[in-house]
Design a protein that fits this description.
The complex is a heterodimer of chains A (about 110) and B (about 110). Chain A has about 110 residues and is mainly beta. Chain A is built from no helices and eleven strands. Helix content of chain A is about 0%, strand content about 50%.
């Protein structure tokens, strides 16, 4: 099993450009999450999907949109990138909600110039 | 608002020198506390979940304990491969969300 996979690993954008970060899991988990990690701050939840067909805002959703394409895939879209969105983005999944152990992908390092 | 504070921010140990990392928390109804290990350039890797005060869990050289206000990650006779950042996270029943601490960066020197 690959676990949680993310693409791309690295990306550089110019201010105003758009892009989609892809995430897939092969553990048959129901819940999936997008976090960002910035220096000196803990991981912060952007959006999550408790189950296929549902999505909810987390702590820092502004400037992002998500799509739960199917049970395996959960994408994060930046419509108009800003320098404040420079960060490392992690996707995670868990069997059933946040009470269960979350398994993380390797991350996408995004720089917005 | 839920808060999680980890200390120290960084810790340097000699190989074999045991120590503890601290995670103190203020949450609205603790439902679970998680410990993760994160290596540079990688995603967090799950270590333990603790659910109630008094609970302890062990894995190799690591032992996690939980009280009503804090959790400790005890590292016994660490090896260089234990070098990583250790993250603590709490799940609160009040807000139904997970709050992460900023981590303790551990370096074990041969």
């Amino acid at each position: 099993n690959a676990g949680v996979t993310q693409t791309p690993k690295f990306q550089v954008l110019k201010t105003g450009q758009s892009m989609t970060l892809q995430c897939a899991q092969d553990m048959n988990h129901n819940s999936m999450y997008w976090y960002r990690q910035d220096p000196g701050m803990g991981l912060r939840l952007i959006y999550y999907s408790a189950s296929e067909g549902t999505t909810d805002k987390g702590e820092v959703p502004n400037g992002y949109n998500v799509s739960r394409l199917n049970k395996r895939e959960f994408s994060l879209r930046l419509e108009s990138a800003a320098p404040s969105q420079t960060s490392v983005y992690f996707c995670a999944s868990s069997l059933e909600g946040q009470t269960d152990t979350q398994y993380f992908g390797p991350g996408t390092r995004l720089t917005v110039l | 608002e839920d808060q999680v504070t980890q200390s120290p921010e960084a810790l340097r140990l000699q190989e074999g020198e045991s120590s503890s990392l601290n995670c103190s928390y203020t949450v609205s109804g603790l439902r679970g506390l998680f410990w993760y290990r994160q290596d540079p350039g990688k995603g967090p890797e799950f270590l333990f979940t603790l659910y109630s005060a008094g609970e302890e869990k062990e894995k190799e050289r690591l032992k996690a304990t939980l009280t009503k206000k804090e959790s400790f990650l005890h590292i016994t006779a660490p090896k260089p491969e234990d070098s990583a950042t250790y993250l603590c996270a709490v799940l609160s029943g009040g807000y139904q969300k997970v709050t992460f601490g900023t981590g303790t960066k551990l370096q074990v020197i041969p």
